[in-house]
């Protein structure tokens, strides 16, 4: 039963990626990079470390992806006003223009995914998903630290 639950969750994630890839095929960015643009647009000035922690990935992976998006003209890094060692991530006009399409694709997928669920079922799903996410983040943190 545990394997089926995890398998279904992973399948939903893959389907979401495939849906976004198809809907955003004109932008020529892989779905994994859409997340970085989304975070930069929602939280301009966030740091690479915050992005890595939010996505549960290592800082090196985040740095490589951010560099790629910077080279493609979607993001820019600026020194932090409060900590000169940190570089803050900001969306460019190119990212800001793309963000509504990314957000729209997420919204469409989520709408179709959750279609037919009652308000009570949605509340319960949100509660359960929150528990799964907290457990996954804690496990990822334990794995990294030790």
Count the beta strands. Answer: 3
Biggest sheet: strands, sense, closure? 3 strands, antiparallel
Order of helices and strands: HHEHHEEHH
Instruction: Enumerate how many helices there are, as a single number.
Output: 6
Query: Beta-strand level of the residues, as a percent range?
Result: 5-15%
Please report the distance between the alpha carbons of the first and last residues. 29 Å
- Structural class based on helices, strands and sheet pairing: mainly alpha
Approximate helicity band: over 70%
Question: Low-confidence runs (pLDDT<50, min 5 residues)?
Answer: none
Gyration radius, in Å: 17 Å
Overall outline? globular
Widest sheet: strand ordering: 1-3-2
Task: Provide mean pLDDT, rounded.
Answer: 91
Task: Write a concise synopsis of the structure shown.
The protein is mainly alpha-helical and 146 residues long. It is built from six helices and three strands; from the N terminus they run H-H-E-H-H-E-E-H-H.
């Amino acid at each position: 039963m545990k394997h089926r639950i995890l398998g279904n969750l992973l399948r939903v994630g893959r389907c979401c990626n495939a849906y976004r890839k198809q809907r955003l095929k004109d932008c020529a960015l892989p779905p994994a990079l859409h997340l970085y643009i989304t975070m930069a647009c929602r939280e301009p000035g966030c740091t690479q470390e915050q992005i890595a922690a939010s996505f549960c990935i290592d800082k090196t992976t985040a740095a490589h992806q951010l560099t790629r998006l910077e080279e493609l003209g979607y993001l820019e890094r600026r020194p932090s006003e409060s900590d000169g060692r940190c570089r803050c991530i900001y969306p460019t006009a190119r990212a800001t223009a793309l963000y509504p399409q990314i957000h729209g694709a997420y919204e469409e997928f989520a709408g179709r995914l959750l279609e037919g669920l009652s308000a009570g079922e949605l509340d319960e799903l949100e509660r359960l998903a929150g528990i799964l996410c907290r457990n996954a983040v804690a496990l990822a943190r334990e794995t990294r630290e030790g």
